[in-house]
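Treating backbone geometry as a discrete language has practical consequences that deserve illustration. No coordinates are needed to read the tokens, only the vocabulary itself. For completeness, the protein is quoted in full, as a sequence line and a line of structure tokens:
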Amino acid sequence: RRVLLLGEGNFSFAAALCGARGTHVVATCYESEEEAAGRGGAARSIRRLRDSGAEVVFSVDCTKLKEYFLPGKREFDRIYFNFPHCGRKAGVVKNRELLACFFHSCAEVLAEQGEVHVALCNGQGGTPADQPRREWHNSWQIVAVAAGAGFILSDVHPFRAEAIHGYKCTGYRSQDKSFCVEGALNHIFTRSTPPPCLTPVSCKTQLGSQKVSFQVPQVLADKINRGFLEVNSSHPVRTIKEKLSAGLSQAFPLQNISSCLPLFHQGHLHGVCPSSIFWIALSPGEAPSTEETSQVLANAVWLSHFGRDTDRSVQEGCPIPKQLYLRPSLLPHAQAVIQKGAFSPGTLHVLSGPVFRQCRITPHSMPVFHEMLVVLAVRRGTENSCIQMLVDNIKTTTSSLHQAVSGVKPSISLQEATRFGTELNDFAAFECQLGEIQHFLCMGTDPDPSGSCVGVIRTAPDELKSSELVVVSASLNLDLLAMLLCGISDWRMLWTSDRRFLQQFPEGELRLFKSFSLYPPSYVHDVSFWVPDGEEFDEVAFHTLARRVSGEMVVSIQLRDSFQQPGTGRRSLCYRVTFQSCDRALGCREAAEMQLRFREEMQQHLSVTLR
């Protein structure tokens, strides 16, 4: 591997590395050879480097690296810059500028999978790894500076000068006063994946007997057809689904519904807020026939026993609405299986696939997630014991998985809906809109042992025209389970395109996730506006617009103030919007551009007046 060292003082660090097997060292310094050789011990280190076959280059400016190396020799696997400094009494702003130019220069000479190592004195970096930690404005803000050049902080550890044989730290340009290395940290940066593509995406799907195409909602453009549940996938959501299925098959005869489930439904779900649905339109000239449209609607009808009745206009035979929406649940598909007579009492039927729901922005609120729905018909009077058997099986499997991953047994509980004392998360709240729920399945892990709802249990009279049977269904959020089992703090990480995520789960093995993007910078923007007179402000639409404009780079939206103007009655709202990525570089300039675009689109799509 090719290793580039910058800003060497007496070349003792480079000399310590030059003997490493399989490593070609290129050591550089800012001074001329005459100036550098006059420093204590430098001449001896330079001779050792040259004798070992290393390259020594002088008068190298770390902000213009490509000027010193031919195109064929620019692919460095590692770049080291120990204790960069502008010199003398340069303040934090000057040193930030130096680092910014340095990282941009590194991007031109670093191999695709390469690393940039930057050692800083204690407190300079401005990350939580510094102890004590400086105030942000008084630090070098290294993570934010690196993000501007497309780098993320992937690791940080103590810089142990005493472990480097022969290393002697010098000061700025090899001055006698050396840098203080006590508590110093080595920051390791890697390239980030490129920004997400925000161009419109069309998708083809089956509708009746024909293939139709539709434009995917922008916030879902990189989440449609990802294939996480396919046979060759090693994604943790598939592993959890397979483990749960295997466990359930030990207690019940099990049948996976393998038929292709339609991505969208038609009609209206009574009781469900329209702003929670992703509405779509077919591409021009691809409207389905009346017969096919009716069939799609039939698949979307909710039996009143499972949830809410369908829209009254549909029941009364009024014209079918032309709007389609992405499926928010797999319950209608289970209903279709029952209606078609393919439902075997006593057999556990398993359906799984992504479902889509517009929601507010929080680390655990997902506009798309993978649902696992299990449905079972049992004899009336035995439903409670069957529910307990079903839940015990799920608890045993998840407990075993969590203990294998973290060595800790989680807290898993079944709570009656009427006695549920915890605040509902978005998953549970939407499920309540779909119909009556008997039980919530909650799973708690550190630091939240009280539990988060990961599943709901429903019962309904059997639709096979038998008064002796009852249908039991359990809906599980596989994405929430994956986050809790693998220690993933942000749902967006499950959808990252960065290869380093799936590399942590070889052949579907579940492990504790270690983030490859540490201490990502965040950028706060407050926005206030007047709400149109006489209109209720749609907060979900506001959050969805933020998702779309930022490409899921908004991590938090909080209402800061609500004000009603005396006399006119006009209402003003102020929100704090926090931009932060969990898996890729987000620089200050890019975040500022998102903020401006968000403000423009708010006026256009939400009809608000900015203050």
Notes: The radius of gyration is 29 Å.
